[in-house]
């Protein structure tokens, strides 16, 4: 190359370099900018022909311009002059270099196309058949060991076959075919656990403690292997196989041997917790929780069937509960999303609570040491978990579980110990929910307050002695004292507190005063919660409606024949009913029903109809009096509907007298009835005549002339 050609080439390179810098300053695409930076390095190094670089830059620039002109069609990354991929895939910057300008050593190897990936054929051929094949091989090994070998050699051969199978799968097959290797390794792992069960139950090669130890060792090995392979499949398989092995081993053993089994189960669980797998860690923890809980249920029932003492069974349950708390703690402290773990924790907590209650119920109730031991054990385990999660929100899951569990188990305490325990839990729940705005704490407070209210009514409705009455009084006092702490869910707490107090006091009263005291408490609740600003919110109308509905039901109960001669009951109910209408039917109480006079007239009519004051003529006189008052009130308040109601009621009373009351009544009663009703009818008629004349005079009176200014 002569000097002239060298100068032209140098000029092209300089021009190309300036153009790349200009494009870099104008680029608005991250992938194209990275490509230009890579391109600049190649221009500076001058390892490629200038013409090839110019052609490549022109093609890439056209692709970039097309991309900028069509922003809605998707974002694309330039891989070469005639190739692009979706931008949601990561592409290194050196993939922008054209294949014809990059040396073979710098070219990126294209991924090989997977055969049958994601198809049904692949699922059947690679997965299902491998599982079936592995299961058949395992069954063949078991049959061969049982039928063609004897004694110790037979048992050890089962271990040897399973271990060799696992070794070949992990060393040779797993590296090349991961899925097939995983399935075959799972067959080997299952074979190791199955060999232990067969050696213990069928071949009797070693005692129970040896089987327990071998099962624990195999599980620890599987935990280490799953940790190394980061395989959630290995971990779940090992846990389930380990649990299934421990169930038959725990048959026909003593209490001491049962405790040894419990210790090994706890050890294997702790190893699995502290050797987690990163792949599907949340799912593994959820399955571990549920498997641990279900196994605990099954194992306890088997222990009861084997007549294991209650104390070792409770120790096992406490150790299983400790594993449950540990799984929640590790999930939260490792920064996982714990929504699913919390749900599994709640389900497991309910199952543990049921089995704890059954254990205490089956035990001698006179032994307070046993019951208190269970309560303190659960409290200690939950306290440890709470302290470990002190800086995490998941600690409230543990607190809620502990609170509800201890509350239910405290039912088995004798005397006043249970109510005092509930009151302590209620005070703590109220304080926490008042000062910590956590939804779970609010729900816990609602559940606990509701339970305490129901237990107060239960103690009062079925008193077996003075202690039960004292317990009921203590619980009701706790509910009432907690009223000032109401700061959320106002309508629910107002309804709960009011109705609990009403039912409790109703149970204290004689039969004739039950309805009046109930209506009186509801009336007092309306006055209290509507006149305190911190309890009066936009939902106060819900409480008022339910309190009013309770009063209406009580007034309907007056139709029961047992109240036929209960005049004190009628009088008290009449007073509370009128007080409710007069005082609370206002806008301040969100019960402004408009025509309050009409409501009062209807209420008085109902009370006059159902009251039994001797002869029926008395009811007619009362109804006629109500009609008279209704007409007068209608004229005074200028409400036509009330006047019409009083007029119609007076006519109906007159009809009732002629058709019903007059027939068969003594002469004196007839005389009094006719005279009283006649006088009131004349009064009503006189009211209409006087007021009609007055209205006519008002309409015919001349209007005053307006003074005209001079």
From TrEMBL:
Coiled-coil ranges from the UniProt annotation: none
UniProt keyword annotations, A-Z: Membrane, Transmembrane, Transmembrane helix
Xref: InterPro entries: DUF2339_TM
Organism (species): Candidatus Acetatifactor stercoripullorum
Membrane spanning residue stretches: 122-146, 152-173, 180-202, 208-225, 232-252, 258-277, 284-302, 314-331, 343-361, 367-389, 469-490, 502-529, 541-561, 567-586, 593-611, 617-635, 642-660, 672-691
Protein name per the record: DUF2339 domain-containing protein
């Amino acid at each position: 190359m002569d000097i002239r050609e060298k100068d032209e080439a140098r000029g092209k390179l300089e021009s190309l370099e300036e153009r790349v810098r200009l494009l870099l300053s104008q680029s608005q695409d991250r992938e194209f900018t990275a490509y230009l930076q890579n391109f600049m390095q190649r221009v500076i190094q001058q390892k490629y022909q200038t013409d090839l670089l110019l052609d490549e830059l022109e093609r890439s620039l056209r692709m970039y311009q097309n991309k900028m002109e069509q922003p809605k069609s998707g974002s694309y990354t330039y891989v070469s002059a005639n190739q692009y991929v979706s931008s949601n895939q990561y592409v290194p910057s050196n993939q922008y270099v054209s294949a014809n300008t990059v040396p073979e050593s710098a070219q990126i190897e294209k991924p090989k196309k997977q055969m049958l990936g994601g198809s049904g054929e692949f699922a059947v051929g690679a997965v299902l058949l491998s599982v079936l094949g592995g299961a058949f091989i395992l069954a063949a090994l078991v049959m061969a060991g049982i039928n063609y070998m004897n004694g110790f050699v037979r048992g050890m051969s089962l271990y040897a076959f399973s271990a060799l199978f696992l070794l070949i799968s992990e060393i040779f097959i797993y590296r090349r075919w991961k899925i097939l290797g995983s399935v075959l390794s799972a067959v080997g792992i299952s074979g190791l656990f199955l060999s232990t069960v067969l050696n213990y139950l069928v071949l009797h090669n070693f005692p129970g403690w040896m089987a327990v130890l071998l099962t624990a060792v195999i599980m620890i090995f599987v935990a280490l292997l799953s940790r190394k392979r980061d395989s959630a499949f290995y971990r779940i398989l090992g846990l389930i196989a380990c649990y299934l092995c421990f169930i038959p081993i725990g048959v026909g053993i003593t209490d001491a041997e049962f405790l040894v089994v419990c210790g090994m189960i706890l050890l294997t669980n702790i190893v699995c917790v502290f050797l987690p797998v990163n792949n599907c860690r949340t799912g593994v923890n959820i399955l571990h929780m549920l498997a641990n809980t279900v196994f605990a249920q099954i194992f306890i029932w088997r222990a009861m069937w084997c007549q294991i003492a209650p104390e070792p069974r409770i120790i096992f349950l406490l150790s299983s509960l400790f594993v449950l708390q540990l799984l929640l703690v590790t999930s939260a402290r490792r920064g996982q999303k714990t929504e699913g773990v919390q749900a599994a924790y709640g389900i497991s907590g309910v199952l543990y609570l049921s089995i704890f209650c059954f254990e205490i119920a089956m035990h001698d109730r006179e032994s307070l040491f046993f019951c208190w031991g269970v309560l303190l054990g659960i409290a200690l385990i939950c306290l440890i978990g709470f302290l470990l999660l002190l800086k995490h929100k998941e600690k409230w899951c543990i607190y809620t579980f502990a609170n509800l569990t201890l509350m239910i188990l405290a039912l088995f305490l004798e005397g006043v110990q249970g109510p005092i325990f509930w009151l302590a839990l209620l005070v703590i729940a109220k304080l926490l929910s008042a000062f910590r705005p956590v939804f779970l704490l609010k729900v816990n407070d609602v559940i606990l307050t509701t339970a305490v209210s129901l237990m107060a009514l239960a103690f009062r409705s079925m008193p077996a002695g003075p202690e039960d009455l004292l317990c009921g009084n203590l619980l009701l006092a706790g509910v009432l004292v907690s009223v000032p702490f109401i700061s959320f869910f106002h309508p629910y707490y107002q309804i709960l507190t009011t109705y609990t107090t009403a039912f409790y006091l109703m149970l204290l009263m004689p039969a004739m005063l039950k309805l009046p005291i109930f209506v009186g408490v509801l009336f007092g609740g309306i006055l209290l919660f509507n006149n305190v600003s911190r309890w009066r919110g936009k939902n106060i109308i819900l409480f008022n409606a339910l309190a009013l509905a309770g009063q209406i039901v009580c007034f309907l109960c007056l139709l029961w024949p047992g109240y036929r001669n209960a005049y004190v009951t009628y009088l008290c109910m009449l007073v509370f009913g009128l007080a409710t209408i007069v005082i609370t039917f206002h806008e301040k109480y969100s019960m402004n029903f408009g025509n309050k006079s009409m409501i009062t007239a209807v209420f008085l009519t109902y009370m006059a109809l159902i009251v039994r004051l001797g002869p029926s003529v008395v009811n007619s006189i009362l109804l006629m009096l109500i009609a008279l008052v209704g007409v007068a009130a209608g004229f005074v308040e200028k409400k036509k509907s009330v006047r019409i109601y009083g007029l119609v009621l007076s006519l109906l009373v007159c009809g009732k007298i002629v058709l019903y009351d007059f027939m068969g009544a003594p002469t004196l009663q007839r005389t009094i009835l006719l005279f009283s009703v006649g006088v009131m009818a004349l009064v009503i008629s006189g009211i209409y005549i006087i007021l009609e004349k007055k209205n006519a005079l008002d309409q015919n009176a001349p209007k005053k002339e307006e003074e005209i200014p001079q």
